[in-house]
């Protein structure tokens, strides 16, 4: 892999990570604040707390697994391993 291709891949991973972070923040906002008026409870705790805390954490884990399996690649940035 050429050096320019390695940096393109690193840039792709960085952009995907920023988008994933934005997605987690949007999920947290909608799950926490969006459900604030909902009267549903689980174990005497309002659903917005469950979704804002536990749901957001689970969503972030799923996004991280997706990034690790589909976006990120293991790249060696040593110059001596460069192939043309």
Account of the 3D structure:
By secondary structure, the protein is mainly α. The radius of gyration is 19 Å and the shape is elongated. It has helices at about 5-35, 45-70; strands at about 40, 45. The protein has a two-stranded antiparallel sheet. Helix content is about 65%, strand content about 5%. A hairpin with a 2-residue loop joins strand 1 (about 40) and strand 2.
Order of helices and strands: HEEH
Question: Percent of residues in helical segments?
Answer: 55-70%
Rg? 19 Å
| Low-confidence runs of at least 5 consecutive residues | none
Q: Approximately what portion of the residues adopt beta-strand conformation?
A: under 5%
Distance between the termini: 7 Å
> What is the number of beta strands?
2
The pLDDT mean sits at 88
Counting helices, strands and paired strands, the structural category is mainly alpha
Question: What overall geometry do the principal axes of the alpha carbons give?
Answer: elongated
Helix count?
2
Strand order of the largest sheet: 1-2
Biggest sheet details: 2 strands, antiparallel
Task: Give keywords.
84 residues, mainly alpha, 2 helices, 5% strand
Quick summary:
The chain is mainly alpha-helical and 84 residues long. The protein has two helices and two strands, in the order αββα. The termini are close together.
Q: What topology does this entry show?
A:
Elements: H1 3-33, E1 41-42, E2 45-46, H2 47-71
Antiparallel strand pairs: 1-2
């Amino acid at each position: 892999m050429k050096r320019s291709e390695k940096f393109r891949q690193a840039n792709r991973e960085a952009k995907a990570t920023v988008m994933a972070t934005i997605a987690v923040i949007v999920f947290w906002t909608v799950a926490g604040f969006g459900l604030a008026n909902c009267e549903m409870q689980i174990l005497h705790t309002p659903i917005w707390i469950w979704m804002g805390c536990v749901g957001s954490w689970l969503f972030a884990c799923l996004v991280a697994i997706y990034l690790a399996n589909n976006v990120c690649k293991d790249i060696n940035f040593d110059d001596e391993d460069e192939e043309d």
